[in-house]
Automatic annotation (TrEMBL):
Residue ranges annotated for the HTH hxlR-type domain, each copy included: 18-116
UniProt keyword Transcription regulation present: yes
Entry keyword set: DNA-binding, Transcription, Transcription regulation
Top-level taxon of origin: Bacteria
Provenance organism: Streptomyces vulcanius
Designated name of the protein: Winged helix-turn-helix transcriptional regulator
Length: 139
């Protein structure tokens, strides 16, 4: 059993009914992980988060922030100004998770040269196999 499943008695991220699985999905899903990483250096307005998390639609970012807020990982602070302003910030619950997401991103960056080389070799093997009609070599 992994250390993650041993920490909380009666809970397992491997159990589809456990709330931890839902939170894991919110925190590490495509937009959730990027949103948490964007907020690690401090509070941001919605538009600032959107600029950092390029490619996300306004609707998807709003839903992501809402889920993270519902999980207690992010707090939303509206300001009483004429031009509507809302800041998003990591909570005490969200900060350690966001920092670990950033650690994962750093690990990916560290391994990226090898990953790219492997992807290129796999693509070349697939092309070679398709031109000679055979199965790609396992490796």
């Amino acid at each position: 059993m992994s250390r993650g499943t041993e920490r909380v008695a009666g809970m397992s991220v491997f159990d589809p009914q456990c709330v931890s699985r839902e939170v894991l999905e919110h925190a590490t899903g495509r937009w959730g992980g990027l949103t948490l990483a964007a907020l690690v250096d401090g509070p941001l307005r919605f538009a600032e988060v959107r600029r950092q998390v390029t490619g996300v639609s306004d609707r998807m970012l709003w839903q992501t922030l809402q889920r993270l807020e519902d999980d207690g990982l992010v707090t939303r602070t509206p300001h009483p100004t004429v031009a509507r302003r809302v800041d998003y910030e990591l909570t005490a619950l969200g900060r350690p998770i966001a920092e670990r997401v950033c650690d994962l991103i750093d690990a990916i960056y560290d391994q990226l040269p090898g990953i790219v080389a492997h992807q290129r070799a796999s693509a070349a093997a697939a092309v070679a196999a398709s031109t000679d009609g055979g199965e790609p070599a396992s490796g």
